Amino acid sequence: MKVRADIIRTYQTLHHWTGIIAGFVLFIGFYAGSLTMFKPAFEQWATPSNNTFSTEIVPEPQRLLNAVLETETSNIRTIELNLERGNHLMAPISWSKSGIKRGLDIDQQRFIATFDNEGELIKQNVKPTVVAELIDLLHRTAGIPGRVGHDDLGVLIMGGAALLYFLALVSGVIFLLPTLVKSFLALRENKGVSRFWLDSHNIIGLTSLPFHLIISWTVVVFAFHDIVYGSMGQVIYGDKPMFELGVKDERVFTNNDLLSIESLNKIASDIAPQAQVTSMYFDGLTTPRASVRLDLHIDNEVMRGPLADMLFLNPYSGDVIFGSVATDNDPIWAETVATFFAMHFGSYGGNSVRWVYFSLGIFGAVLFYSGNLLWIERRRVKQNKRNPKPLSEIKQTKVAKRMAAATVGICLGSIAALTITMLFGKWATNILDNVNQYYIASYYVLFICSVIYTFWRGASVGAMLLTKVIALGLLLMPLTSLIGWIFPNDILWLASAWQAWVIDIMALIFSVLFLFMAKKIKHRAIYGEPDSVWAY
Amino acid sequence: MSQSSSIQKIQSQWVSKSLIGAILSYTLALLLVGIFAWQGPGGIDASNKVQFNMWFTVIIWLCIFSSVYLFKTALRAFCWLTVLNVFAFSLFILVKQ
Questions:
Q1: Bridge partners of A115?
Q2: Residue A232 and residue B51: Cβ atoms within 8 Å?
Q3: Mean pLDDT of chain A
Q4: Torsion over CA of A432, A434, A438 and A440, rounded to 10 degrees?
Q5: DSSP sequence for A239-307
């Protein structure tokens, strides 16, 4: 296909600059996003076995709920009730008197409970781990702190990065078009390192293009939906109400007025007959804003949330507040929108799609990393062409050096910081009073140290150290679980859920990968082109 | 030949084209979706349609935004998008009544 040369040049420049500006943030968003596919598994991995009650047996839910409401004389705000065997929740029932904040709450406390063998209620006070929320926070904000209005600054920056990323995708495709047929799927190993990197970059980019377009679109929506709704209200809707406001129920209820589990299930099965209610989440109980969220699992179907579809009901009257499944008065819109969410969350084909999304996310991170490296190499080549010198006299420009250091320090530094923080969390959970308070500090200290070190010692030395640190940290994760299993003690443990073992196995696999990477980096530093940023 | 092609080459004008892309393609996307909101299936009162409309405003915006660099000059981009905006706005006012 022929495309005019000036169009190609324009879009090439656009691709380079949007990629360079957005690459760092997107790298963290992507690798952390891959991990969020298995948030419940990370929670299970980090939760001591004496802080959970098995969900392998589901006690009769109504009796369990009644027993909890009877023993707790004061008002309970939030209750999470499990209805599915082997669910990811930490106990058959859990609750909080003050309510549960969304997102990362380091002071969170909950009660968990179940019936013992005699049918007596046993309960325990626990501090749920924030490790999965930390991963989620990195995914959404790239770790950029601060707030603007009621939005996270990091989310807005991520939205801006996603916008540039959309431009980078379109422009990347445009300037690849002329050589597409010839070089697509060509992985030339014998034409020099940078050609190999470029080929890998193009293969990954093109083969996963639909995924990347969807992700960039959804992230822009997640970040800026308030602004878009605002302008839609101004321009399109005017006086027309945009959202149906539910009739506010002014009646005051007590928890004795709660509808039975059976009748709540009945409402759900009337709306979505094929769905299975896997858990119920009561919130704002005894307040006028009381709601119960029924998580509806429809196997191998498109679900709006990362783990389930949802149906919000008034727990006293049974009125539907909101649902993400099709209802009679809304045949398509909610379900279509649910599809967009599902395409971001990968919640439309069970765990197989989650694994596909995990891989796409990791490859996405590789895309940004390799993109940055290609840009740096290109600058070097350009510079040499302009001003030919013998290799020994060529010096890297400051810009190229700093860019390389930033790429290594931020990308690998973030992974190293998260790995060590998770490891630290597992070792410290049973030693410290509330390990949750140290997670964030640990991540940021390690991250900043990594960046400073890489700028100080240069990209090549920094990359060697950081890949080794990551490999070691990942190796220690399964070893930690192994120690807890072989020598049972009060500090370490092997999680009882098999999902947590998958984390350990994956950590081991990635540890080997990072070790391999470390070897390659060292080899390149010694034997590679001496004028490269990767040389010693 | 060579002279005429050099005259017609795309000028980068990154800042002005990006601004035009950010603002004028957003208003155009909003107006196009506005037409769909009032006249498309279900009309303006269809329940939950507003969410769909919001999602579509964003994707249309992004698509027009990414094509704005094809215009030879920022001025041309500005004129074309203004014309399209005016056209879409008139149609929007028309269908709203």
A1: A121
A2: no
A3: 89
A4: 150
A5: TS-SSPPPPP------GGGPPPHHHHHHHHHHH-TT-EEEEEEEESTTSTT-EEEEEEE-TTS--SSSS
Tell me the longest C-alpha to C-alpha distance in chain B: 58
A338's tokens:
């649910």
Tokens 């910081």, residue located = A417
* Model confidence pLDDT, tens digit, residues A90-107: 899 999 887 777 778 888
Mean pLDDT of chain B: 90
The C-alpha atoms of residue A10 and residue B14 are separated, in whole angstroms, by 10
A218 exposure class (CB count in 10 Å sphere: 0-12, 13-18, 19+): buried
Question: Distance from A165 to chain B by nearest Cα, in Å?
Answer: 10
Indicate the DSSP class of residue A86: T
If you average pLDDT over residues A41-52, what whole number do you get?
Answer: 90
State what percent of residues in chain A have pLDDT above 90: 54
Please state the ipTM of this predicted complex.
0.92
| Interface mutation target, options A333, A335, A339, chain B, most CBs of B under 10 Å | A333
B48 contacts chain A (CB < 8 A): yes
Contact: A216, B58; criterion CB under 8 Å = no
CA distance A535 to chain B (A): 35
Average pLDDT of span A246-264: 81
CA distance A420 to A417: 5
Radius of gyration of chain B from its Cα atoms, rounded to whole angstroms: 16
Q: Kindly tell me if the per-residue pLDDT of A336 is higher than 50.
A: yes
**What's the pLDDT at A400?**
85
Q: Which of A512, A515, A510 is nearest to A31 (CA)?
A: A510
Does the structure show a pLDDT above 50 at A81? yes
Residue with tokens 């302008």: A231
Q: Which amino acid is at B6?
A: S
In a 3-state reduction of DSSP, which class is residue A349? Answer: coil
Q: Which of A10, A220, A236 sits opposite B58 (nearest CB)?
A: A220
> Which ranges in A50-192 belong to alpha helices (H)?
61-71, 131-141, 153-176, 180-183
| B-chain residue closest to A163, CA distance | B62
Option in A236, A242, A340 nearest B34 (CB): A236
Query: Is A228 in Cβ contact with B57 (below 8 Å)?
Result: yes
Measured between beta carbons, the chain B residues lying within 8 angstroms of A7 are 10, 70
How many whole angstroms separate alpha carbon B84 and alpha carbon B24?
A: 9
